[in-house]
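Troubleshooting log. The previous structure file for this entry was overwritten by mistake, so regenerating from the original sequence record. Sequence copied from the archived sheet and checked twice against the printout by T.R.
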Amino acid sequence: MDYEEFIFELMDAEPAVLGAAIISNDGNLLYQTENWDITQNLSVVNSIITECKKPDGNNPGRLEVMKIGYMIIEFTPERVIATNAARKGHIIITPGGSGTIISFIDPSTGPRDALFNLQSFAQKL
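Regenerated output below.
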């Protein structure tokens, strides 16, 4: 699979996605857009992905990506939604078949507006 092409198709389908990355099921960063770097936060993101996949997973309450803090407002096996209280955007983590999409959502939109497209694309992984 061409991950760059996949992410750009997602971004075309969902304009609220301003940056995105794909993480394999074994925790490796497969691709990220040039405007969004999650490498410094990969271990934390991976632990959140692992926990959210568990039926009784432990919600850490917070997530930090690129030195911006987000409060986790939804934590289920299908998705993690986090938002920044200072209106600096949202993060949505959507596990799929062979990996997980983590995306940065436009601060001017609600995170749920992008959820359908993100979950649809995650199922294609």
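The chain has one domain: 3-124. Archived copy saved in two places this time.
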